[in-house]
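The aim of this short unit is practical: by the end, you should be able to scan a pair of folded records and say something sensible about each. We start with the first protein, listed as its amino acid sequence and then its C-alpha cells.
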Amino acid sequence: MSYRRPPGLPLVDAMTPPVLVLPGPVTRDEVTGLSEDVRALLRAGGARVVVCDVAGLGPPGLAAVDLLARLQLTARRAGGRIRLRDPDPALCALLDLVGLRFEVEGQVEEREPALGVEEAVEPGDPAV
C-alpha cells in the first residue's frame, strides 16, 4: 500500500479561539445563559480557550467578578479556560485583589529576558 502526497502546500487550519462579547451590566439571571454559551463554544469548535470581550461590561464591581469567576469555572469544568479581551485596568486590579487570575489577550508573560539581552548603561554609572 502506498501513499501519494497531494501536490501543493498542506492545508493548515488556523485555530482562532471563539469570542463571547459580554454585554453591559449583566444581571444575575443572565449568568446561567452566558455560562451555557461558554460551554457550547468550547464543545462546538473543539477549542480550549474562549475569549471574553469585557470592554462593554461596564464599571467593574463584584457582579463582574462573580460573572467572570463563574465563566472560568464553567470553562474549567468543560476542559478549557477563558481569556479576557480589553479589560478595564480597574477590573484587572479588582480581580487581582480578590485573588482571581485571568489570562489577558495581548499581555506579555512575565519571565526572564532572552539570553544575550543586556541592559543599557548610562555614562557615569559605576561599574558593578
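Turning to the second protein, read its sequence before its C-alpha cells, just as you did above.
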Amino acid sequence: MSDGKLVGIVLVSHSAQVAASVAELAKGLVGGGVEVPVAPAGGTAGGELGTSAELIAAAAASVDRGAGVAVLTDLGSAVLTVKALLAEGDELPADTRLVDAPFVEGAVAAVVTAATGADLATVEAAATEAYSYRKV
C-alpha cells in the first residue's frame, strides 16, 4: 500500500447485533493501533431482522477510503440485496465487491489483512480462503 489508503469492510447481517458484534470481534483481533474502516449494516432501518439497501449503502460510503470496499454477508437475502445494489451501479462506492466468504471467519481475515495495507484483491482472497479453515 503505497498511498496510505485502507480497504473498507462492510458486514451485512440480518441482525444489527450480529453485524455489530462481528465487526467488534474483527477489529479487536487486529491490535496494533491500525484503525481499519469497518461498518456493520445489520437489520432494517426500523430495527427489525432483515436487510436494508439504505443501511448497506450508508455503511459502504462511511468506510470508503479510496482503496475499495469489501462487503461480506451472512444469509440469502443479504447477498441478494448487495447484488441488487451493485447492479444499480451508483448506490455503492466505486470498486465495491461482494466477497464470497464465511461471515465470521471471513470478516476477521478481511479486517486483519486490510490492516496490513493490502489491496482489495488481497483482502478478498484472504476472506475467501477462510472457507478452508478446518476446526477438527
